[in-house]
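BUG: 3D viewer hangs when loading the predicted structure for this chain

Environment: internal workstation, default settings.
Expected: structure renders.
Actual: progress bar stalls at 90%.

Input used:
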Amino acid sequence: MPRSILLPLLLIVSLTKLWSAPPNIVYIMSDELAYFELGHMGNPYLKTPNMDKMATNGIRFTNALAAAPVCGPLRGSMMTGKHAGHASVRENDGGTPLRAEEETIASLLKKNGYATGGFGKWGAGGRGSTGVPEKHGFDEFFGYYDQVHAHSFYPPYLIRNSEEVVLPGNEGGRSGETYSHYPIMEAGLQFIRENKDQPFFAYFPITPPHGMYDIPEDDLAWESYKDEAWMNDPAVNQEAKNYAAMVTMIDNDLGTILELLDDLGLRENTIVFFTGDNGGQARFKSDDHPHGFFGPNLNPATGAVFRGGKTNLYEGGLKIPYLVQWTGEIDAGGVSDFVFSQVDVLATLCDIGGATIPDDTDGRSVVPEILGKSNERASHDMFYWEYKGQTAVRYGYWKAIQPGVNKLWELYDLSNDIEELNSIAEANPAIINKMKAFAKAQHTPVRPGTFLDPDRVLHERDRWAKWGTSRDNAN
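Structure tokens produced before the viewer hung:
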């Protein structure tokens, strides 16, 4: 749906704000950190004091939704502002690329004078394809291009602008001398230091806590759990303990980024986003913890559970944590039930950075809601998703889902049934038919980018680097 339809001219004018200087943008997206895995959401195990402080100092959104329930497609949709029915990346194979001509958040901000850097997991085009980040506006991207490569924190190398950067002492797998997340974070911090005198877009799509649940024994995050009895319980899986430390490591990283902005005198001219990428997984299940040890989709206050999780289009696959802080611009302690999705991120960041938003995108700026100047309850009349034969539409509090090809459509009133337990499709034919018609209109045939090398040699090398640099090392 063209942006010109979504935003009438009068509304565009009313949303415009002239900043005294182009603000810096820091966008941190933690891979699979789930809605109820933050301390201020009542999680009884995970320690996230910097995230909690950010929620207090900024605004927390309760209805932020992923553009897709899995890594690759949501990254492609977010970067291009196109929903799943129009996006070029709809497979979660780790390498499906953006098309060469597609604009991204980075390319649009770069045209408006921003330095652009990405640090973490790209997921929208493997090496040797039309979708690599340095061809889509990033001055620098350091980390993983392929998401299978990103499963290991001890790969033999990372990628900077399609070139391999050796990590000393690593052979792939689950141990080594160089923990990959550390050089990725340091590169991001250095990017901020080097560009402190000009507007910058620092994108941190960091991998933890996804992938293999590994973290060095001497990471400072462990200090937060030294007095926790459950950490010494042999019945608790060691990987669950590692996961907790990884979440707190991310929290410490957030604190480090905010401290750096303070040290450089950039806090008031920098808007900071902290979010997850897609819905959570019920990891580390047991009889005592049927929804996962950390209850990523379990409301600890009410006992309500978001249905499903990663890979499906129920709320458990789409709900994400979303925090925004901008000292001097955002009122502290705000909580908003405004409904939006990652498809809106491109329009939002371009609005902040004064960049032109292409007409072929589906998103809409949510800057007014971030600044507390909107009375709207959703960024769109309807939202659309598709993935692996599933289709979903949201219309206000109505949620329609076709959970598979040729399966019956379901309809839920999320204001009364957030767990999506009782379909009321038969009782509301007019509503469900309207949403089905919208879904039909939004789907277009997929047109992914291409690999310049038909054998995908570099891309395959990166995938096998999870365990080493060749198939011979895989196990």
